[in-house]
């Protein structure tokens, strides 16, 4: 395993390379030292497929990564099952939640 750690501000957009940021830090006894920070587009290109492929390869090479990515659900799930509100989502998850991932 590498002595590097990645921090990734992830994007799934079509041009994900432009909005995905990667920070590389060196892990030492005293903590972390940032050694690089870049857009995925600078290393692997702006389109989603190339940016994600490059990111996957870098994570596999480094071995340790923290990812920040948005949690989302399709609109029909939020509307039909949760009344279109966050409180509705929380209530749904607290009660039964999803029983069928395809429902």
Summarize the structure.
The chain is an alpha+beta fold. 41% of the residues lie in helices and 26% in strands.
Features:
103 residues, alpha+beta, four-stranded mixed β-sheet, 5 helices, 41% helix
Order of helices and strands: EHEEHHEHH
Envelope shape: elongated
Q: Which whole number gives the mean pLDDT?
A: 87
Distance between the termini: 40 Å
Strand content: 25-35%
Main sheet: strands, sense, barrel: 4 strands, mixed
Which strands sit side by side, in order, in the main sheet?
A: 3-2-1-4
Helix content: 40-55%
Quaternary organisation of the protein chains: single chain
Helix/sheet category: alpha+beta
Number of alpha- plus pi-helical segments: 5
* Uncertain parts: none
Layout: helices, strands, pairs:
Elements: E1 4-9, H1 16-19, E2 21-28, E3 31-39, H2 40-44, H3 48-62, E4 65-68, H4 75-82, H5 86-95
Parallel strand pairs: 1-4
Antiparallel strand pairs: 1-2, 2-3
Task: Describe the model.
The protein has 103 residues and is an alpha+beta fold. It has a domain of 65 residues. It is 41% helix and 26% strand. It has 5 helices and 4 strands; from the N terminus they run E-H-E-E-H-H-E-H-H. The chain has a 4-stranded mixed beta sheet. The longest helix has 15 residues. The model has no long low-confidence stretch (mean pLDDT 87).
């Amino acid at each position: 395993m590498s002595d590097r750690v990645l921090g990734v501000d992830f994007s799934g957009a079509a041009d994900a390379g432009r909005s995905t940021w990667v920070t590389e830090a060196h892990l030492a006894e005293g903590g972390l030292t940032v050694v690089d920070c870049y857009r995925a587009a600078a290393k692997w290109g702006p389109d989603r497929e190339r940016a994600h492929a490059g990111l996957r390869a870098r994570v596999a090479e480094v071995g340790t990564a923290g990812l920040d990515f948005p949690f989302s659900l399709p609109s029909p799930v939020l509307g039909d099952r949760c009344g279109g509100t966050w409180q509705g989502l929380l209530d749904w998850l607290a009660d039964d939640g999803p029983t069928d991932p395809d429902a």
